[in-house]
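Why does this matter for the project? Reviewers at the last site visit asked to see concrete outputs rather than summary tables. In response, this paragraph embeds two records directly. Each consists of the residue sequence and, immediately after it, the corresponding structure tokens. Nothing has been edited or filtered.
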Amino acid sequence: MRPEGAPFREGTGNALYTRSVSTSQQADPMIGRLVDGRYRVRARIARGGMATVYLATDLRLERRVALKVMHAHLSDDQMFQSRFIQEARAAARLADPHVVNVFDQGQDSGLGYLVMEYLPGVTLREYLRERRRLPIADAIRVMDATLSGLAAAHRAGIIHRDVKPENVLIAQDGRIKIGDFGLARASSANTATGQQLLGTIAYLAPELVTRGTADARSDIYALGIMLYEMLAGEQPYKGEQPMQIAYQHATDSVPRPSAKNPGVPEQLDELVLWATEKEPDERPADAQVMLDRLREIEQQLGIAPLIAATTAPTGVPYDDEAITGEFTMVLPDAATGPTAPVQEADNATKLRRALTRRRTRGAWLVALVLALTAVAGGVGWYFGSGPGSMVAVPDVAGQDFAQASAAIEELSLVAVQGDVFDIDVEPGIAVGSDPEPGSRLDKGAEVMVLISQGPRPVQLTSLTGLPQEDATAAAQAENLRVSDEVVELFRDEAPGTVVAVRVTPRDGGDTVNCDAGCDAHEDDTVSFFVSVGPVPDVTGLNVGEATSRLNDAGLEVSGDQQRQTSETLAADLVIGIAERGSNGSWRVGETVTLIVSDGPPLFPIPNVVGMTRDGAKAALEEAGFQYEYNGLWDAVLDAVTEVEAQDPGPDTYYPRGTVVSMQIQVTI
């Protein structure tokens, strides 16, 4: 189901163990290690929160496997140990062509591991990322296979609990399988609280959000969301925070996919709505019930799902004769009659001696011929079908594919290209080969030349709003470098919160703003801008106190000051700090300038001498000043009053609100 004409890309590192050798594999101490005396680790495929998955060779059965190794820091955690063993037991109980097989489980040097089948291919998530939405026939085929595998799990009493496109694999040979039963539990153990509620939020059933319980119908809900996404090209619920999406799962109804894609048949609309009912009792009881309905829809639409082929295990060729130990032998001729000792006469003895002497020189010649014949036969056997017929794989690291292919084909081997991501080897150049250099192979055998595709692409989600430690861990989990130079900003966010993210390409390109997430590559450098809290408020402090507080916060204070009048602050008290020269937040270590009060502003007192009492009062009030005079003058008619003097005098400057004393006289 790979897009026609598109190059085949082997996985991007997920739980289904598609081939994607990590860019940092050369620094991984597991590479080349022999696990439990049986599994030779070849390359790293994927890394998750609980384990790392490697491509390995089972030396006993001579086949490739996916080796899932628990992270060392979790090896002492009994809960994770239990989940690891639980995954092996859950998947091993399932014998279905649509379920990723588990072959083995054990511990080596304190590290728990699982051995699973290795399936080169792409995940449904990758396929959706390339195609956005699937043709109706492809969506039905994926759903048919996924339901078949999940139905086998439900029949065995196992709930998957983490159904999503990342856990569905479309193999290179067309097989479709569901895997990663790391969250699987028995149907009777349906409670999921606290740390157990680990399912991806976009596919989380409402009962997990509201009640924390899960059963087979919770898997059905996730399948309904997955089918909607395949048909509509997007998930039904979106939100800035996971809790927003969870709330929509619990309160909203999933819309018909035909609202986004008019080509969706009504039968599939109804199947999506049935599978995503908010009440579990209104959904299909299990995967088999939903599969039966899907098969009816397939007949109605005339679509036949792909049938999974069952193939014999690869490895040592089957040989009846070698197993039974029966070999064909040439028996000596049977005697045809009774035998008796033969008495040789003396003349016969003499005759043999005479003949021997005459043929001595001829015998030496015959012996030499026979010896040369034997040597020639041995050489022919050695180089024709014996050990000499095998050739050693050459070291092709550092060559392009054409050069590597020529070196391999010169030894009568067949070169095939395998793409891997690598941070140290430039694109188009071989990282190595599989099998490794020096391995001996029969002539005509295939050698995969591992060609670097450069650093692995990374889709970095938004890290703003996270504590710096969490943002650092998230970036390092994607094999990104985290710069030691952290820019500390004075912001309103809590101290230690990441407020901006910048990514610098490893090849020295332009730095990218990654505040809302961005595309990057492994080994790119991530720089964080982190809040240290707001700038300290120094309003109302004297200059010395303000300087000390700002210095303690990490800011320098300039010796120069800006002076301003203030109607609320007395002279020489700090009003605040001047604005930053360029836009943006203040950074730790920068120099600020204090704004210091000159006291309240001064205004001229108007001249009211010669005005009547009420006229003088109005003039002073309009100018913002107060007044006082002998209250007895209020009993006198205003028209016969006149201000004969004022204090302070006219045209002197005082703060608004200053009281002007007036002396009044009668003008009669």
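We now turn to the second protein, recorded in exactly the same manner.
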Amino acid sequence: MLRKFILILISSLIFSFQLLGQIDNLKIKYGGVLKIKPFENYFPVVLDPTHPLSLRFISEQLFDNLVTLDKNLNLVPCLAEYWTISDDGRIYTFYLRKGVKFHHEKELTSEDVIFSFKRLISKKSISAYQRFFISKIKGGLEYLSGKTDEIAGLRTKGRYIVEIEWIVPFVSALYMLTMPEWKILPKDLLIKEGEAFFDKPSGTGPFKFDYWIRDTRLNIVGIRLKRNDNYFLGKPYLEAIEFCPFYTLDNFLNKEIDVIPVLSEKVLKGNYPIIGIDLLSFTYLGFSCQRFPFNEKRIRKAFSQVLNKEKLINIFNRIHTIPKITNNYIPPQLPGFLPKNKEKPTNPENAINELKNLELDDLTIIIFIRRDEREFMRKISKVLKDQFKFLNIKLKFKFYNSKKDLLESKEPYLVFVTYDMSFPDPENIVIPLFSSQSNFNLFEFKNEEFEKLIKRAEMEKSWTKRIQIYKKIEKLLEEEVPAIPLYYSQERVAFQNYVRDIDISPLGFGTLNVRKVWLNK
């Protein structure tokens, strides 16, 4: 018995030493350069985070927000150590971390926050969210029109305290403040250098500008960022990052670069670690809800029941981006929402008979497809003509660039719409796509109950109650069928097996958290 106990003890000790050896081998290491090929096939030499051409990935490394998101889209503190919200939901008070330094060693203060936000909403700003912010903040429109030099709702309450006052409760404000446009910039350098500041910017981010990567003709093709050893959330493990869209597949296969979109079957067959990112990018097939026959919801519903989503979305399959069928109007990746079960089995014959009984002979229906999806035109036309061949109607296919192209058409239409969410809140997809007040509403959808629910959601201070309102909104959309949810996109990223702790949120590749990445070479 004693001998058996000794053998068990020895075995346990051997296993423990082996385990400790494995853990030691995986001990986090500092150093190394991470070389990244992004999804973009171009490199804009734009480092201003408020500019629409700037790349999110670069902004995330150089600058910080007051608040940010983790990989599961939960709000977490960043430059603001914590914040409070007034009982009426209109005043947000942010308490900044003390001792945070910009890359040029100047300490962050509330004046930098105020300056950055005023710059975003000034006349010179070309941010798409300028007007959205101005309409929400107290005194924003007066400031923009030049009536005042200050924004009444944007105040400093001391060296480390910032107060924002909204006209009405603005529950999604914290999510909006996580966007790249809301990065905090140093007031002193921007005033001193003007736009030249962005030639070599200084932020509070985990990495600093090092130098531009150039080709043999000295054209800028990428950027190198070096570690910020004094980063307030902890020193990054990597020594530097090199980011260039012009790295090739061969560079990756030869282990000359470390991270790349899945561009080829060679990557899939190469036994590389791969991450699939379910993006907040949703595609719908929408109806012209004010035009016969789509002005009746029973007809819209019948068309949706006849449509074979699987055959249709397979057209949009790319090796690095895969379409995934969805039945959700609001992305299930958002906190508080869940994926809808697969559609209940319906009898498409009933829908077909209902459509056959309509007087649709010789009716022309336009199918609008985004111009940047023209590569799919032939396949889309074949699938839709086949699925609706039982009707004696004409399907006419056209490209569109803007809402104007649809309005100029006199015929009823179906339109493919893809919407990429910029911050993870249901209002960021429901209002732009379905509100009658939105310039992005391509479906001609108008519904009084919908608008009332939107107003209720805007005024609701409780996050939980607000989510319940949006669930009612989604149920209403399911009943009214202004559009058919088709798919969301899944990006696929491959990396070398020595790259550790890759985190990317549903907001896409630009949110790759490089600060936590390390190389086990």
